[in-house]
Amino acid sequence: MTETIIGVALLIAAYFAGSFPTASAVGMISGHDHSKEGSGNPGASNVYRTSGAAYGIVTVVVDVLKAFVPVLVTMWILDRPWAAGVWAAATVGHVVPFARWRNGGKGVATGGGGSLPLFPYLGLAMVPIFIIIVKLTKRASVGSLAITVLLVIGVIVLHEHVMEVVASLIVAAVIIIRHRANIARLLSGEELKVS
Q1: Per-domain residue ranges for the chain?
Q2: Quick one: DSSP state of residue 192?
């Protein structure tokens, strides 16, 4: 019973951690409103595009930590299945934040950050793959979607518990759904490029 209470509390805390509006906070510092500039998405790619590389990197780091820390803490306090649930909760919080239901980010950095404590080698392998794909295609969305799918495949192959597979599928689903406009623009040839 105590484990369940702690686990549920950690899930809730992870959701709220994921909901932290990183891009809005960075926007206040950089003097930009990322919800009205570039793609309008409150994520690292748009911050990079509108405010520059330094602010984009800060956004990525904070978004990664929003899931990395809760998952790591959960692994320390409870176990991997609960940590996998926390991974999904933090990512959902980033994509569907409690105060901005329709204005969350796309979940790639947060989802990736949550994967690192659970699958460090797999998660780290996604970084160069993302960079290479973005360099080749000039589109962050292509890299994001590719590593999302590859991460799920890797988790299915390497998983230690069914909850890890379930969590990875939830993470992938919310990221892909949040990228539906990007997918439409990619198909029409109108997707924004990363310089």
Answers
A1: 2-188
A2: P
